[in-house]
From TrEMBL:
Membrane topology recorded in Swiss-Prot or TrEMBL: Multi-pass membrane protein
Subcellular location field: Cell membrane
Membrane-spanning intervals of the chain: 20-38, 74-95, 104-121, 127-146, 158-178, 198-220, 251-275, 287-306, 313-334
Alphabetical UniProt keywords: Cell membrane, Membrane, Transmembrane, Transmembrane helix, Transport
One Pfam family named in its UniProt record: FecCD
CDD domains: TM_ABC_iron-siderophores_like
InterPro entries, per the entry: ABC_BtuC-like, ABC_transptr_permease_BtuC
This protein's name: FecCD family ABC transporter permease
Entry's family note: Belongs to the binding-protein-dependent transport system permease family. FecCD subfamily.
UniProt keyword annotation of Manganese present: no
Amino acid sequence: MSDVTFTAPRSTRPVAAGRLQVLGFLAALVLGLVLLTLSCGRGCVPPGDVWAALTGAPEANAVFVVTELRLPRAVMGLLAGASFGLGGVAFQIMLRNSLASPDIIGISASAGAAAVFAIVILALDGWLVSLVAVAAGLGVAALIWALSSRRGAAGARLILIGIGVSAMLDSVTAYVLLEAPAWDRAEAMRWLTGSLNGMQLVQALPVAGALLVFGGLLAVTARDLEVLRLGDDTAEALGVRADATRLRVTLAAVGLVAIATAATGPIAFVAFLAGPIAARLLPGSRGLLLAAGLVGAVLVIAGDFVGQFLLPARLPVGVVTGAVGAPFLLYLIVRANRNGGTL
């Protein structure tokens, strides 16, 4: 993510109108994908029957298919995708680097390792797994931040330390899986790929709560976060407390990513992809948080639909997003080398 530069605006109305058009398009795309997942699958349900099933009409057909099988997947895909998108772009804006996403710097790995430990070793489930994942995410985020802040904070140093911590946590996850019984190992491996299989609406409640609380915290911090992109000295001169803003943003982003990861598994590269895609659709910083959340929802819902119905074999959503995200990561690195380190 490149630093923000400001020029004297010719008119704010065309800019605001363009921003609303992009956000409206993304919102309509999310709604359209949700309707698609509710209507289409192994068999198609007419839109009228979908509406009847959602409204509880007594004569509705395919109630079980729509409300028990497809609706939980769609709701969880929307909530988890928005959480990953918001958490990822918050880190990228704060650190002014497109590589500084939870996927890269170890936050997703910490939540995943903690969730696997809670599921396999502690035999926990539900909100307790989410609690363990959030605690681990916050702890690892604090550790990475402390290690990277010696003799002045540096985004590149934080990313490198995060990659190392992520590799260490992946080793912990592998060890836990190696010691787990065969059934628990199979369940944990399916979870680690990132999947919406077998979702129930009750599982979406912690993710919805996190999106409401931590997303709201990011919303009220959005202005300070934008100013922080100009550098600490400029932010302090404009009355923004840089350290306090970073603390709030880190808390909110880790909470979003950790709880979503505990619910769906680490859906690869969604937090990494959402910010750069949103930045290209919506140049400038205004509205970028909301745009990234919508893009994250699009990626998860579309990736799940593609993996389930448009490929020769049924694949979890994390496999599809990983296949898209890995080449995009290489593209960003190559572009950084060509631009002298600027992403």
